[in-house]
Amino acid sequence: MKKRMIQCLMFPALLAMATNLMAQGTVEDYRRAYSAYGKFNASQVYDDPSNIQWNGTRVFHYSTQTPEGTAYHVGLVETEGQPAKMQHVDMDALAALLARETQKDVKRANLRLSRFSADKDTPSAISFEFDGFRWRVKDAFGSGLALDSKEELKKAPWRKQRHWMEVDDEKGAGPVVSPDGKRQAYIKNDNVYVSDRDGRNERALSNDGTAGNYYSSWIRWSPDSRYVSTNKIRPAQKRYVYYVESSPKTQLQPILHKQEYAKPGDELRFKVPCAFNVETGKATIPSTELFDHQYDISGPEWNPDSRTLTFEYNERGHKVYRVLELDAETGNVRTLVEESSPTFVNYQRTFRHKLNEGKEMIWMSERDNWNHLYMIDMVKGKVKHQITKGEWVVRNVLRVDEENQTIYFTASGVNKDEDPYHVHYYKIGMDGKDMVCLTPEEGNHSAVFNEDYTMLVDKYSTAERAPVTVLRNTNDGQPQTLAQADLSKIKAAGWMAPEIFAAPGRDGKTMMWGIIQRPTNFDPQKKYPVIEYIYSGPGDAYTPKSFLSYNGYTTALAELGFIVVQLDAMGTSYRGKKFEETCYKNLKDAGFPDRKLWIKAAAEKYPYMDSTRVGIYGCSAGGQEAMAAVLFHPEFYKAAYSSCGCHDNRMDKIWWNEQWMGYPVDSSYIECSNVENAWRLTRPLMLVVGEMDDNVDPASTMQVANALIKAGKDFELIVIPGAAHTVGESFGEHKRYDFFVEELMGVRPPKWDELK
């Protein structure tokens, strides 16, 4: 009897404890999620330099956040190898000066300056834009600062920018003057004409141009003024996407918008580089044998010899990329550089720099699986030597110093004992010798060099560690610490750094790297559902590697009572071409075999991560991938939020999809299509689309919704009026919160009115 009484007394306590452990997705959690940005955004991190710039070789400047407001700092390197002298703009005096001059209430705490610059000869003289004027202030480091000049800013006339999907038809450019100043060349009636500068002695150099096969107005003269070159273009019929703006601000009735938008498989224009001898009128029209199956032609550009031109050929399907040379006299075309692959050449990751009057060229290539630099003999059309080498990748070339035969570049993966995505800065001789790391500290580096590349300001951090900013020279690399970010304010507000986590992928050996974000009220005794934010594809790597006080994809969502993760799996960039090629004709893979193993490994290490309740969300390609997760891996992913997804790669932009899915359009497009596989859905799904999405055709979301309806599937569809390419805006964000709280926690979300 006594034992039963004790059990009865204990039961309510145990129930209360269990309820407390599971209490997630509450009103308090929502309020904490919505307040996270205000508490943790970058303005709450002090002494973290931003807008770092050099002016010349000895003066640099940057801004920081302080408890008093934005501060501006100027550094002067008086003697090479000696510490820089740091000075700071007197912001109180500056605010008072601006208040007097503008007759406005200018508060120091709110004062921010645009286009700030310190004079390279007199660093105490600063200039900036404020209140519609360009200001110059002298003696800015003391309370005696004074106005030097004030000039009203002239607003440039507004011009509508060409949308990034629009193809320039290369019509309408004006006359191009010859280098010797005697003649001009131009297009008239779709043909190439030349005349004297005053318009006299006009002659047609071509007569076969038509509206359906015209000459480009992008005309180039040879250096000796004997030739002109251009492309003859056979245009293709353009595809357009239409958007209905249902709720315009300017009128009651909807507005129909039209956007040029080529899709995979569409016919493309065809270009033929041509050259014309201005003296003789001879036209050189080459055979197209080496550039016949075009995705695009860039150039041609004249070489210094005034006889040959180079142009670049990107084959349709991206398996071949060539740099070609055209002889303007003979019409012969030869290959100078060729990249080829049975899958794809990542042509958007190329670099070229001509040397020695065009006889040599520095070229970037993944031909040995790793992205590296090569020296090309442009006369013989072959590789002279490989400049960089190893199981790591060149990320970007910053400068080619021909005088000192040195290349400055960034790379990742060189240091085998740290995260392979961390960017470091290097210099190397053009002969491939004497490679030096300019930023040796562990972390992800972002550096700004002075004018002659003798010094750099280097800021480095990790996803876990706060930024450190140093000044160093490129000879001995000895650093002078300029700033150490102060996290005291965000830490006092409860901020928690994400954890960097690595685990083997599908091959059992290659490590996948990601981050784990916990809520600020994290309790290891609780059990947390897991949400993955996904964006994949070989265009880049996507997991943050530098410090973020607030990660828009993970921070707020974690506050609801989730653990949110983000990682780069196979099929993304900077781990070698074979790593990238996992996605080829197989975008539905999206690295899921690696992602599932990574999350399981994290959950094994941290039992509070519930790998039986995993959700996923993403936008754009990530939207496609989030839905693919519940279609093809429903045993693991239990709910998906998919925003503005390219659900069928035949419906999306040509350049992204033909790059990774290939050309011609074949059955692999169908196999990867969420529309074709919509019948597989067994898990909760929320689809979101902006009606004005000019990145991914909104019809792609509507078509997958249609397929789900026909298959009798239950799902949610959110259409956001007036929105473009979006994760969901504020409305969609709230719907995402509610969706995951309900589907992964089994908790009824708070009513929206409760959160006001």
Explain how this protein is built:
The protein is an alpha+beta fold and 756 residues long. Helix content is 17%, strand content 34%. The strands form 10 sheets. Strands 36-37-39-38-40-41-42-43 form an 8-stranded mixed sheet, with helices on both faces. Strands 13, 14, 15, 18 and 19 form a 5-stranded antiparallel sheet that branches. Strand 21 and strand 22 form a beta hairpin. Mean pLDDT is 95; it is low at 1-21.
Structure summary, number of beta strands: 43
Terminal CA distance reads 51 Å
Tell me roughly what share of residues is in helical segments: 10-25%
SS element count, helices: 12
Structural class: alpha+beta
Uncertain residue segments: 1-21
User: What's the rounded overall pLDDT mean?
Assistant: 95
Radius of gyration: 30 Å
List the keywords.
disordered N terminus; alpha+beta; 756 residues; 43 strands; 8-stranded mixed β-sheet; 12 helices
How does the SSE layout of this entry go?
Layout: H1 2-22, H2 27-40, E1 50-55, E2 59-66, E3 69-76, E4 85-88, H3 91-102, E5 114-118, E6 126-130, E7 133-138, E8 146-152, E9 176-177, E10 183-188, E11 191-196, E12 203-204, E13 214-215, E14 220-221, E15 227-234, E16 240-245, E17 255-260, E18 270-277, E19 283-284, E20 294-302, E21 308-315, E22 320-327, E23 333-340, E24 352-355, E25 360-365, E26 372-377, E27 382-386, E28 393-401, E29 406-412, E30 423-429, E31 436-437, E32 444-449, E33 455-461, E34 468-473, E35 480-484, H4 488-492, E36 499-504, E37 511-517, E38 528-533, H5 555-558, E39 563-568, H6 577-580, H7 592-605, E40 609-619, H8 621-632, E41 637-643, H9 654-661, H10 667-671, E42 685-690, H11 699-710, E43 716-720, H12 729-745
Parallel strand pairs: 38-39, 38-40, 40-41, 41-42, 42-43
Antiparallel strand pairs: 1-2, 2-3, 3-4, 5-6, 6-7, 7-8, 9-10, 10-11, 11-12, 13-15, 14-15, 15-18, 16-17, 18-19, 20-21, 21-22, 22-23, 24-25, 25-26, 26-27, 28-29, 29-30, 30-31, 32-33, 33-34, 34-35, 36-37, 37-39
